[in-house]
Write a structure and sequence with these properties.
This protein is an alpha/beta fold. The protein contains ten helices and eleven strands. The protein has a six-stranded parallel β-sheet with strand order 1-11-8-7-5-6. The longest helix is centred in the N-terminal third of the chain and has 20 residues. The termini are far apart. It binds nicotinamide-adenine-dinucleotide (NAD). Nicotinamide-adenine-dinucleotide binds next to helix 10.
């Protein structure tokens, strides 16, 4: 008789909510201090999409910012906005001294690219690390805002006292928003990092080498028990919609039979990402 999945699952869960709450409390304290000086932190969100999940994200971020004492303005340019209109808006916000953080929301209108448009965001206000200059500075080991998700992965590992220095890390995914920056943040912390992607042959043979496996592919169930070394730490960045309106990661449930610890989806990287983003806004405001 095979045991039920509930019995077989034994990996420890690396939750993000407690860490997120503490980061948000720090950000709220900074925001209150700035407000008392007459300069409350302000985040500008630029959107150019009719995408419903993006609209949901903007509403929830606006609410979280408000709870933290960060003022928020949304510039909705419409899904047919041209690259010139978007970069013009980003440039205007970059020059506005009352705006401290700027986010360009994805998806973007067809034919435009985040990396190209985000070049118009002042790196000092680039709180989600979207300007290629921010990624370049990060790679060079210079101060820069990292994409909040990538920074959240590192914060979550450090919060749970996972050793990064000297260990073998495998990152699945090479996007400029998650895979690449997370690889460099961990490299900067003395991990030995391998990056995999959709053209990596025999993915499992590479991921099984990892002490820490960071998965950011956006493919539900891509990583299963056969991809994981016994006792490995698995960070599941993936967020995939389920037919019942829920959310699931890239890591299948059977991974829990092999891994030492896994971040849950939802409740792992997600809440920490929002908290890091808000903290980066207060940092940008404080640096003025
Ligand atoms: P993306 O589509 O830009 O990049 C996906 C990457 O995964 C690519 O580099 C691709 O080569 C790789 N990939 C795809 N299929 C693969 C396969 N079969 N084998 C190996 N590699 C494969 O996505 P992204 O923007 O980097 O986001 C990745 C995931 O993280 C998505 O699910 C996204 O929703 C999620 N995400 C979560 C947060 C959060 O806060 N939790 C934030 C941003 C993104």
């Amino acid at each position: 008789v095979s045991p039920s999945p509930a019995v077989r699952l034994y990996a420890k869960e690396l939750y993000g909510k407690e860490l997120a709450a503490s980061i948000r409390a720090d950000a709220a304290a900074s925001a209150a201090a700035l407000a008392s000086l007459g300069a409350p932190p302000r985040l500008a969100i630029v959107t150019a999409t009719a995408d419903e999940s993006s609209a949901w994200y903007v509403r929830s971020l606006t609410k979280a910012a408000g709870q933290t004492g960060i003022e928020c303005t949304v510039a909705d340019l419409g899904s047919s906005a041209s690259a010139e209109v978007i970069t013009g808006t980003l440039g205007r916000l970059s020059r506005d001294p009352a705006v401290h953080g700027i986010i360009l929301q994805t998806p973007l209108p067809e034919g435009t690219r985040l990396a190209e448009l985000a070049g118009a965001i002042d790196p000092a206000k680039d709180v989600d690390g979207a300007n290629p200059l921010s990624l370049g500075r990060l790679v060079a080991g210079l101060p820069a805002f990292a994409p909040a998700t990538a920074a959240a992965v590192v914060e979550l590992l450090e919060h749970h006292q996972v050793t990064i220095r000297g260990v073998r890390v495998v990152v699945v995914g090479r996007s400029a928003v998650v895979g690449k920056p997370v690889a460099h943040l961990l490299l900067n912390r003395d991990a030995t990092v391998t990056v995999c992607h959709s053209r990596t042959p025999d993915l499992a043979s590479v991921t099984r080498e990892a002490h820490i496996l960071v998965v950011a592919a956006g493919r539900a169930g891509l990583i299963g028990a056969g991809h994981i070394a016994p006792g490995a730490i698995v960070v599941d960045v993936g967020t995939n919609a389920t037919p019942d309106g829920g959310l699931t990661g890239d890591v299948a449930a059977d991974a829990g039979t092999v891994a030492g610890a896994i971040t849950p989806v939802p409740g792992g990287v997600g809440p920490v990402t929002t908290a890091v983003l808000l903290r980066q806004v207060t940092q940008a405001a404080g640096a003025d």
